[in-house]
Structure formats: C-alpha cells, structure tokens
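thought: fold this chain, then report.
action: predict
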Amino acid sequence: MVSTADRSDRFERSIQWIGAASMAGVFGGLVAGVAARIAMRLFAEGIGRATEFTVGGTFGIILVGAIFGAVFGIAYPMVRRLVPGPTVVSGITFGLLMTALVVLPVLAVDSGEAAPDVDLGIRLGAAVMIVFALGTAAADAAIRRLGDRPWTRLGFALSAALALLSSLLVVPALLGAYGTVLERIL
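observation:
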C-alpha cells in the first residue's frame, strides 16, 4: 500500500519535473521568438513585401514564443531520454520533431496568399524550431545542473503553473490548425 507521504513526494517530484521542463521551454521560446522575428523579416523580403516591424510587435512575438515554449518545453525531456548522445543531437532531433508537429500543420492552414512561398516558410519555420529546441536543450542542461534547492522548487512550481495556463491558449490553437488540415484533406 502506498502511503500518503509517498504520494505527496511523487506529486512534488512531478510538479518539479514539469516546472523544470517548462522553464527550459520558456527560455527556448524567448530565443525562438527573436529568431521568429528575424525569420519574418527574411520571409517578407523573400516574397518582396515591405517590412514594417515595431518594437511592440517584436515583444509580442517574443512573448508568444515564451508561451508556446512553456507548453512544448515539457516534451523535450522525453526526447532527451530517447535520443542518445550529446545535448546538441537531442536538441536538433527535438527541433525536427517540433517542425513536423507544429510548423507543417500551421503552414498548411495559413498558406493563403503566400502559397508559392510555402517552401521558404517551411525552411524558416524549421530553423526557428531548431533554435527553440537547442535553446530548450541548453536551458534544460543548465537547470539539471542546479539540483534540488528551495528556490528552484518555487521556480519550478511557478513554471508548472505557467505551463498549465499557457496550454489553455496553445492547445486549442494547435487543435484548430490540425482540424483545418484534416478538413482540407478529407
């Protein structure tokens, strides 16, 4: 029989695990937000569009990267365990997986007027996802080196809460994109 203390300890470790992964994802998302803004500029220039970017818009993109990172960062430790080798290898593998799961469905839905340039969008999107994954992998390695300290436990709990709140935004948006792709296919 499992005692209440054992359940409590397992619950606390789960929250710490989710929080640490989410915290790594937020860092990766911030880095990817900057990369996404650069990719947007390259895409606009690649299709011959005027580029008007604002500071507020840039911060918005970086914030969206952090929100998505809080959710998707939780998946990185699972990939890290399955992919042997250095952090860079698991990071790139995670980036390619995220490209397949996020970039391709979103571009399939959002191709609209840029349809001829979807290939450019896929390449830039893949680059942003690999930047996200490498940032997440680097942050994950640094967080694991910190160990179990009282201040890290509080940070992990806050990150787990952020991941939960972020998932309320991210999951419906991604499911909507998948739904639209399925409608087009069927």
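thought: worth noting. Helices lie at 4-46, 55-72, 76-82, 87-109, 118-146, 150-185.
final: tokens above.
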